[in-house]
Write a structure and sequence with these properties.
By secondary structure, this protein is mainly α. It is built from eight helices and no strands.
Length: 287
């Protein structure tokens, strides 16, 4: 939950224009108090400073989680391996955070930073639900796990495309520039159009997935995660529209948009883990 909050805070930091609040000094703040350890009473500096220290706290929590998983008896490698991977990812994330600041908030670095952040959430979700022994899977179970996994990958792609178009305002919604097929020769317009097209396909896919999940009479816990992902995704479509109507000026909308996107990805990862026998409870039960 702390990692999800960090992603939302990062979205607000970017959306509010606070990403350069500490200028190009990292991890301290340029001209801050106590040699940059504390911020001045400046809004943007305080937001960026808070983002960095919440990130440090998340790093500590992930390390503690990994130590706890390693020391547990019997040791559960299904929890240890993703926990160790999360530690490695948080090191990469810290380095990317530094590069984002030093690189003047370059869009590609910011998107890569978000890519790793959501991957960390996925790894921690696996740690949280990891079972000590796999469930018994049929070929139908394995195929269904892949279908849910495709949904998770699609949601991930929508999120990353959204991060690339964040600062590139183009009017019109749901159509880009009020045209079914806009001028794709403009890279900004092409990115927006791709983002919305993939987002629309993703919404339709999740609707079908939720219907099929209910008809297959999957475990209630698995069905719940698919429904959560669908509801969060649908709400996020509304936030995407609001994002356009406010001309990409609201840091709060950016934070909420990222928060729901992360929830969608995490819920689908948990659903896939449950259907694949990775998570708590055997296949075909409601444990």
């Amino acid at each position: 939950m702390a990692t999800v909050f960090l992603i939302a805070l990062g979205g607000y930091t970017r959306g509010s224009g606070s990403g350069y609040g500490c200028e190009d000094l990292w991890p301290m703040c340029e001209n801050g108090l106590l040699g940059g350890l504390l911020p001045r009473l400046d809004f943007h500096m305080i937001i960026e400073w808070a983002h960095r220290w919440v990130a440090a706290l998340v790093g500590v929590l992930i390390i503690v989680t990994t130590i706890s998983a390693w020391r547990s008896r019997p040791r559960n490698l299904r929890a240890v391996i993703p926990a160790l991977s999360a530690v490695g990812a948080i090191v990469v994330e810290a380095w990317l955070g530094r590069m984002v600041v030093k690189g003047g908030l370059a869009a590609d670095l910011v998107s890569l930073h978000l890519t790793v952040s959501v991957a960390i959430v996925a790894l921690l979700a696996l740690v949280m639900v990891a079972d000590e022994s796999p469930g018994v899977r049929s070929s139908q179970d394995a195929a269904w796990t892949w279908w849910i996994g495709i949904g998770a990958a699609g949601a991930y792609a929508v999120l990353l495309l959204g991060s690339l178009v964040h600062n590139l305002y183009v009017p019109g919604w749901p159509l880009v520039g009020d045209r079914v097929v806009p001028d794709l020769g403009n890279s900004h317009v092409a990115l927006h159009w791709s983002h919305r097209l993939v987002a629309a396909i993703g919404l339709a896919y999740l609707v079908v997935l939720a219907i099929m999940n209910a008809r297959r009479k999957r475990p209630r816990s698995e069905q719940l995660m698919v429904v959560v992902s669908l509801v969060a995704y649908a709400l996020n479509v509304g936030l995407g529209a609001a994002h356009v109507f406010t001309k990409v000026t609201s840091g709060g909308l950016v934070a909420a948009h990222l928060l729901l996107s992360t929830v969608v990805c995490a819920a689908l990862i948990v659903a896939a883990a449950r259907s694949g026998g990775y998570a708590n409870g055997s296949i075909g039960t409601d444990a």
